[in-house]
Amino acid sequence: MKILLLLGLCFCSSCFLLSDFSRSSYAYTGSESYSLVVPRGYNSVETAIDSSGNELQVYSYPGGATLYFIRARDTAAAYQPINYGENISRKLYHTIFYKGIDSSGRYWRETRFGGFKAGYRTVAWGRDWKFDSAINYFSLLMVRDQ
Asked: Of 138, 128, 122, which Cα lies nearest the Cα of 62?
């Protein structure tokens, strides 16, 4: 039984290497590093701390798409221009998220849980599932650890 489990894990990890995702990590001040999966093909990764003490890690992609992970000390800080009158929040994995299409027909999403936010913007049609998967993976890790 243990051999079958080991073979299954090897098979799954080898499939991951051929997938549309790459592994990365996210660490905020005073914490351990958290594992991430992000869509392949990003141009750059930027980490920053804004004037409110919010710690950001932003992945930039060709075509203007961005994926972000934030440890929010100020949860009122806006990273997406969300029109709350037109966008109804949804719940998933003990999180609240908003998702929509901007005026140029590109997808955006923001997920909030505890003191964290994760999201993307300016994602082309048909690629949003990759970014959703990255955020869902991060959300599950963070909810599990809280």
From this structure: 122
Structure tokens at 69: 């992970």
pLDDT, tens digit, 9 for 90 and up, residues 77-116:
788 888 888 888 888 778 899 999 999 999 999 999 888 8
- The answer to whether 68 and 134 have CB atoms below 8 angstroms apart is no
CA neighbor of 27 nearest in space, from 121, 109, 116? 116
CA distances to 16, 21, 67, 131 from 137, rounded to whole Å, are 14, 12, 13, 10
List for the chain the helix, strand, coil content (%; round to 5).
25, 40, 35
Start-to-end CA distance of the chain, whole Å, equals: 32
**In one letter, which amino acid is 36?**
L
Q: CA torsion angle for 119, 124, 127, 133 (degrees, to 10)?
A: 10
